[in-house]
Amino acid sequence: MKKYLIFYFIASAIIVLLFGLSFCSFPSDSIFDEGIFFENINKVALYLNVAIIIIIIVLLIKKRRIDGKIVFPIAFLVFTGFIVIGCFLFNDRVIVPYVHFGYYARLVVYGFTLLNIYTLLSMEKGDKNEEK
Amino acid sequence: MKEKIRNCLLTIGIGYMVVIVLLMFNSYANSSKYIMISTTDEYDAKLAEYKSKANNITEESCKNYYLSFIDYIEKDKINGKIEVSEYFKRVFSEEPFLSFYSKGIEACSKLTQEAARENSFPLLFLGASIQQDAIMGAYTTQYELTYPDRLVRMIAEPSIGTVQANIKYGKEVEIIERIYNIVTEEEVVR
């Protein structure tokens, strides 16, 4: 459980960082409707994630344990790493700075939403055989 | 039951991440096969019209000019294989004057949207325009904002505008030979 939580909270910290950066860098003058659509989806995903993180913390305080597979948060971290490296790698080939970064940050957040829901579903009652 | 849902979610989650990473690198890997098309601005269009009258450029010669150029870039003579979209092949064949006498950024943006519908990425900078940098910037910015998952490859004839765009946007613009060197002036004006 401890290992899972460490990776999970690292993932959460990265998401907060990514969101801060993507909000700062994503241009808002897109003339296409798709931009507005994605922005709305983005907000929903953000609020949903914040709500789930709060619920998870509350449940942890109430001594619930997590019975999830550690492979999910690790896969998420690897995924985020690939996306961030890819975005920085190709950033010098675009005119609008960090445009890929702003776009892929959303997809990373959707992945994080799945991880959050998984973590929530992995919450088990009681503290039977607490993880070493 | 809960365990099943969890396993299902785990599979979906990891599958989703793998697919996104593959799509991302695939889109970058394919970036070289897209070519964007921009035509001359209004000033250049007038100039081109004037020149065309002087040189008696016909619709047919315009068409030959574009088709020869497409043939040139598709034969892998510039760095990397490039496929020109069917949409632009059609535009060049059916309405060569439309492409040749484009009316500035507005027309460029219309062409961009049309190309976007066909999922193609055409860009060809024609004319040695001093304002070419403005068109390149406006055009590419618009495309990048709409399709941030794609990379635009900028190819242009050597001109003051091309050099300006290089400096202004810090984006590498590949320089090709002047089209008149590829398709000789006699062929165009025939």
User: What's the count of strands of chain A?
Assistant: 2
Our Rg estimate of chain A from Cα atoms comes to 17 Å
Number of strands of chain B: 2
Strand order of the largest sheet of chain A: 1-2
Q: What is the count of DSSP helices of chain A, taking H or I runs of 4+ residues?
A: 4
Structural class of chain A: mainly alpha
Major sheet size, sense and barrel closure of chain A? 2 strands, antiparallel
* Average pLDDT figure of chain B: 63
- Total domain modules of chain A: 1
Overall geometry of chain A: elongated
Distance between the termini of chain A: 8 Å
Count of runs of 4 or more consecutive helical residues of chain B: 10
- Strand composition percent of chain A: under 5%
Describe this entry's structure for a reader:
The complex is a heterodimer of chains A (about 130) and B (about 190). Chain A has helices at about 1-25, 35-60, 70-90, 100-120; strands spanning about 65, 125. With about 130 residues, chain A is mostly helical. Chain A has one domain (about 1-25, about 45-125). In chain A, helix 2 (about 35-60) runs parallel beside helix 4 (about 100-120) and helix 3 (about 70-90) runs antiparallel to helix 4. Chain A is elongated, with a radius of gyration of 17 Å. With about 190 residues, chain B is mainly α. Chain B folds into two domains: about 1-30; about 35-190, no CATH class. In chain B, strands 1-2 form a two-stranded parallel sheet. The N and C termini of chain B lie far apart (about 75 Å). Classes of the chains: A mainly alpha (about 130), B mainly alpha (about 190). Chains A and B meet through helix 3 and helix 4 of A and helix 1 and helix 7 of B.
